[in-house]
Specification:
The protein has four helices and no strands. The chain has 141 residues and is mostly helical.
Length: 141
């Protein structure tokens, strides 16, 4: 019986000692998996920061280009107004040219600043024709 107890005791002690040594080694020595994960995390963070920087740069460049477009448009308007003032033969022609310039600039600005219509679309066909006309609905009621 003693031999069977020893046969079980030695492997059990070896197993406990192996688990303990493995646990201590895992805690004390830096493992390869955590450093690899940390390396991947650091790499992803660097890529994300580079992407954010690129996005900011893109929008700064876009804003700068839009300012140039607006300035060029204003320069063209000024040039045309100056030409109308300088080249028009009489006061009536000058006023018509300047009015045409201001009228052509006004709708473009309105299209940019406000939508075409603020009224919601109708969901029926007005008048007597159409599947959902006013009269047919009133007749049924």
């Amino acid at each position: 019986m003693e031999q069977s107890f020893t046969a079980w005791l030695l492997p059990a002690l070896a197993l406990i000692a192996g688990v303990g040594i493995g646990f201590l080694l895992a805690r004390l020595l830096p493992g390869a998996a955590p450093t690899q994960v940390q390396h991947q995390l650091d790499e992803m963070q660097e890529r994300f920061e580079a992407y954010q920087s690129e996005v900011v740069s893109h929008f700064n460049t876009s804003a700068s280009l839009m300012q140039k477009v607006a300035q060029n448009y204003q320069d063209i308007q000024d040039h045309l107004a100056e030409g109308a003032n300088r080249l028009a033969l009489d006061e009536l022609s000058r006023q018509r040219l300047l009015a045409a310039l201001s009228d052509s600039a006004q709708p473009a600005r309105e299209r940019i600043s406000s939508p075409a219509s603020t009224e919601p679309p109708k969901d029926y066909a007005p008048g007597s024709s159409g599947a959902l006309s006013d009269e047919e609905v009133l007749k049924k009621a």
